[in-house]
Amino acid sequence: MKRLELIFENEMGKNVTLSLDNPVEPVDPIAISAAMDDIVTENAFITNGGEIVAKKAARVVDRTVEDIELA
Length: 71
What we know:
Elements: E1 2-10, E2 15-21, H1 29-41, E3 46-47, E4 50-62
Antiparallel strand pairs: 1-2, 1-4, 3-4
């Protein structure tokens, strides 16, 4: 399963990650950056460390899980 992770910094200088499952691919870096700017500008989320004050990074994480049958 793929996940889009948006990483921000809050007022205490801590990283805050927002995760979205199954992102549309290929991802659009310009749209992601604009959405992250909106989140910061609109104070859309408050964290334990205060408001989100800056965007830091974005990444797509691909996690593959394979079940093992036990005998």
